[in-house]
Amino acid sequence: MATSSLLEQRLIARIEREGPLSFAEYMRIALYDPESGYYAAGTPRIGWSGDYFTSGDLGDFFAHCLGRQLWQMWEELGRPQPLRVWEQGARRGELEVGVRAWAEQEQPAFATALSYRGLDLHRGEDILSAEVLQQLREQEGVPHVILANELVDAFPIHLVEVQQGQLYEIYVGLEKGRLRELAAPPAPEVVTYLDRYCMRWRSFPNGWRAEINLEALRWVELQASLLRRGFLLVIDYGDRASRLYRRTRPQGTLLCYHKHRVNEQPLARPGEQDITAHVNFSALIDEGRRHGLRLRLFTTQRAWLEHLGIFEELEQLRRTHFSAADQERATDQGQIALLRWYNLRQRVLALTDPAGLGNFKVLIMRR
Ligand SMILES: C[S@@+](CC[C@H](N)C(=O)[O-])C[C@H]1O[C@@H](n2cnc3c(N)ncnc32)[C@H](O)[C@@H]1O
After folding, report:
1. Could you tell me what percentage of the chain is helix, strand and coil, using 3-state DSSP and rounding each to the nearest 5?
2. What is residue 41's predicted lDDT score, i.e. its pLDDT?
3. Model confidence over 57-95: pLDDT tens digits?
4. Which of 25, 227, 262, 302 could be joined to 352 by an S-S link, Cβ 3.0–4.6 Å?
5. Segments forming the whole domain that contains residue 257
6. How many domains in the chain?
7. Distance, CA 46 to ligand 1 centroid (Å)?
């Protein structure tokens, strides 16, 4: 029997024994189960041959901009030696490689100061565990920058649905021995969450759905407690609450990724597909402020990359590596240079596309 079926059987056995699971608990098992969860099992299924790709898979531009951002932070903090950066959800350290390459080439003093620590479930490090992070802080020292790219969207979320002006929470139960959604009264912290953002969900149409990421609140609180003087940098898809939780977005933002195909069936293939929801950045900002962080920047990935010189880097490359595209265009060499250049330019356009990655949000908070 395939691993996914085994996980499904275990989920079914647990629900038979203990009753329905909140969607958050179901998602926690489907993604994080140590043996068969999507993130815990085997190798990362990210990149061109996996289920989806991230900004860092589109060449070095993203990591180089991140390098410039970290360098600016280092300067602002008075050039600490070392600058401790913790990347949470770091996969296999792909971004670190790009950041280091940029630093060694462009800012050697910063490269020497940079102490970059990647953490990921694939290495057995669960950043939702306070013990894991506290222990690291004791062993390696207080971090100056905590960063996370496309991490918070994978935290287990509670699902809610409006019916006749009432809020229900979606649980995972059983019907004829198969996993099925069922609606029941929500947990109190789920109800109060939506009311914090003054949403008029009571007047929303039947079937209107939203995701509630309580884990993100706990995570921000924990990060704030880890920082003494430094920055929290979060990049992800999502938006402010007022734009996320809208009457005109009745189905919420929950999506699953399997082999570069998107679906809306989170109960299919537990452990075999990624499950994500857009991030409520208002919640991160409010929670950060509640725990002593100040808002430094909230913008789109496009604006952030532009500010950090992505287009200048592209132009620079054209001059230094692809001059044949301009000077010898009629030759084979010139044509090859031109095609390679188009390829690079396309990557930058994808990273900054306002209808795609460019609309991801970048949040920087400071203590
Ligand atoms: C979408 S990937 C992003 C990877 C990387 N940041 C990038 O930019 O390509 C999310 C990563 O977060 C990791 N992850 C998710 N939840 C985690 C947790 N609770 N603790 C540690 N890593 C986690 C996953 O294993 C995965 O590698």
Report:
1. 45, 20, 30
2. 59
3. 888 999 999 999 999 999 999 999 999 999 999 998 999
4. 302
5. 3-47+155-215+242-279
6. 2
7. 10
